[in-house]
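[Q] Does anyone have a clean structure-token version of this?
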Amino acid sequence: MQIVDKDGNSLDGNSHYKVNVPANVPVKQYWSMTVYNRETHTFIRDKKWAARSSQTPGLKTNPDGSVDLYFGPTPPESGESNWVPTDSKGKFEILARFYGPKPNLYDQSWKLNDIQKVK
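[A] Here you go.
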């Protein structure tokens, strides 16, 4: 679970963030990243969706196999395929899940990148 960005600041629903999920996620099934309301630890109400995963139809992958995910009150210029909406009136948290994890997830030879504020 992540509650702060790369610089140690709380994830603010009125800001925009990006995380790069490196290629070759060590899972047998799939990975996902879900956004929750920080105060209540519940899904954010009245949003199109609460998560994106490696199984999301239309998810865009970078040429190197990595995936850029975006979190914020409005979608990035690249569109909605890799975006998870947040509530501009509150803080949020992100839970990364790895289904059917492989050993290199546990030994940390593969690591998820930090969440960065982009605006």
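[Q] Thanks! Anything notable?
[A] DSSP finds one helix and seven strands in the chain.
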